[in-house]
Amino acid sequence: MGKKGVEIVDLDVEKLIETLNQALSEEWLAYYQYWIGARIMSGPMRANVEKELYEHADEELHHAELLATRITELDGTPVLSPEDWPILSKCKYEAPVDSYVESILKQNLSSERCAIQRYESLAKLTDGKDFTTFSIATQILAEELEHENDIETWLDDIREFRESLISEKRVAEKYL
Predict the structure, then answer these.
(1) What is the Cα–Cα distance from 30 to 53, expressed in whole angstroms?
(2) Domain total for the chain?
(3) Mind listing the pLDDT tens digit for each residue in 110-134?
(4) pTM of the prediction?
């Protein structure tokens, strides 16, 4: 980073790099959670949800790129080993042992809510102290909030679909 860039960062840069590496680890885990979940998912509306999960995975990968770039701009080294991701991450990866679409979405919702906390905290930490990182944090935060909304919408749609099937079954049983 240039001299003026270093001068205007009013934070402990080493601590900031540590925090950014934690977020970077979380993004890699989120990318994989979306990607593998989309691959193994089963159940109603799977095809539509699968497409959305791949889009979310791509966005998580983009977040990782933004964070890695910022870490290097701050003269840091992005986390180098995938083995370190679960150690550094505050958002835990959940293996999708239940491939049902609703289970996959609930796991991703939990991860998104953790990510929202991460970027809200990072935005507050850097507000007025590191304009570049603040901009990155708020951009990612907005996208994580959008992901949360997307997942909640899918879960609502699945719940409504299930309720309509139950209602139709009751009506059919009444007339049989």
Answers:
(1) 11
(2) 1
(3) 999 999 999 999 999 999 999 999 9
(4) 0.89
